[in-house]
Design brief:
By secondary structure, the protein is an alpha/beta fold. It contains 16 helices and eleven strands.
């Protein structure tokens, strides 16, 4: 589904574009990758590595950080889909390593608590303070099932590679990664003043620390969790930069089961038990919050066009696939690629004048090609060294300037 909100006032600048990418677990990240690949393939003039400002939340934070570090959508597909990137080896099991240190830390407090319990039981046989004391036992429950340290290590290896940076301050374009300070309940923008010294890899680790799944990430004495707890896309971060076109990606939308029932299915969401009920509940809350935000942005930033890509409300594949499924990543990515192309094709007449304002054009030959796939045009890349990476970046800069001059 493509949500388009046109600007009601003339643009303040010319062609300034910002990208906001929401979270949604591994499945959501793969949806976003497919949608980004489709946009890059079908929109002439859109260079996702050269936008004016980026913001990412949770799984979207890695994509934003990768794009601003000149990782193309083709390279990201090689990392996560085909697995044949020459420099980066992705192993899904790194995301599911049990948090043994967290388990040990929590369990180490159990003997002392047990001893105190026996003392209280002997001194107070009536058990009048039992409820108060039992609440202390919640402290031995681990804050996360899996260890997210391997995620940070993996990201660090990518962003410290030749031609890339793990330092917000050394990037060519502004990048913001949003996480929530657990003790204050406030969103923090890594990459902004005061938080730009935090390594990008650690900021992404904090932004994707989904409570219950991963433990909070300790940064400078603050404990951070998933940035989506405050807002879905945090699009206001890039809108504050005075952009003319905001491109947003949100993979987490509620499923409209009514359409499925109308087609003859007797199954209802409640039949799927608690997991499906919780999934639909969280999706509805996040979607509602984002829609309210977009409405406010239209009033606060009337000179900015807003273009947001989401799964369709009757998209069973996105809803029924587990948010934490890794094995289905290729199918989800291809599915998002094709649905995004369909959305662009069906809304071409409305989009054309909006995109033209920002120097962009839909490639009708791509939209009309029924055989095109996610992996088309992805060529073999070669191992990078510091010298070849610098050469590649310089040649890319020259090509970009030539295209801009020609335009």
């Amino acid at each position: 589904m493509l949500v388009l909100q046109k600007a009601t006032q003339p643009a303040r600048h010319k062609g300034r574009i910002g990208l906001a990418i929401a979270g949604g677990g591994p499945t959501g990240g793969m949806y976003e990758l497919g949608a980004l690949r489709a946009m890059e393939t079908a929109i002439e003039g859109l260079d996702l590595n050269r936008l004016d400002v980026y913001v990412g939340v949770s799984s979207g934070a890695f994509l934003a950080a990768g794009l601003v570090n000149r990782l193309s959508t083709a390279e990201i597909c090689q990392i996560f889909i085909t697995g044949d990137h020459p420099d980066i080896a992705f192993k899904p099991r790194m995301f599911l390593k049990p948090a043994f240190m967290e388990y040990g830390k929590r369990l180490s407090a159990l003997p002392a608590l047990a001893l105190d319990w026996w003392k209280n039981a002997l001194l107070d046989p009536s058990g009048s303070h039992l409820n108060e004391f039992m609440s202390r036992f919640t402290g031995v429950v681990p804050t996360g099932l899996f260890d997210n340290a391997p995620i940070e290590k993996f990201l660090k290896s990518i962003f410290t590679g030749p031609g890339r940076s793990n330092d917000f301050r050394k990037l060519e374009r502004p990048l913001y990664v949003v996480a929530v300070d657990l003790d204050q309940g406030k969103a923090v923008r890594f990459g902004s003043a005061g938080w730009d010294a935090v390594p990008i890899s650690q900021a992404v680790q904090a932004s994707s620390a989904l409570p219950g799944l991963y433990p909070p990430v300790d940064i400078n004495g603050h404990h951070f969790v998933d940035g989506a707890l405050r807002r879905t896309m945090h699009a206001s971060v890039i809108l504050d930069h005075g952009i003319d076109l905001m491109i947003g990606l949100n993979p987490f939308v509620p499923f409209n089961a009514k359409k499925k029932i109308e087609k003859g299915s007797k199954a209802k969401l409640a039949d799927g038990g608690l997991p499906m009920v919780l999934s639909q509940t969280f999706r509805t809350l996040l979607q509602s919050r984002m829609q309210v935000g977009l409405g406010k942005y239209a009033q606060q930033f009337p000179e900015t066009d807003q273009l947001v890509f989401e799964p369709n409300e009757d998209d069973e594949e996105m809803f029924l696939t587990s948010v934490f499924s890794y094995s289905s990543r290729h199918n989800i990515c291809e599915h998002a690629f094709q649905t995004t192309l369909r959305d662009l094709r069906s809304r071409a007449k409305q989009l054309a004048p909006v995109l033209a304002k920002h120097g962009l054009r839909l490639k009708q030959e791509v939209l009309d090609d029924p055989t095109i796939t996610l992996l088309d045009g992805i060529t073999t890349t070669y191992r990078r060294t510091a010298t070849t990476a610098q050469l590649w970046n310089n040649l890319d800069d020259i090509e970009h300037r030539l295209k801009a001059r020609k335009a």
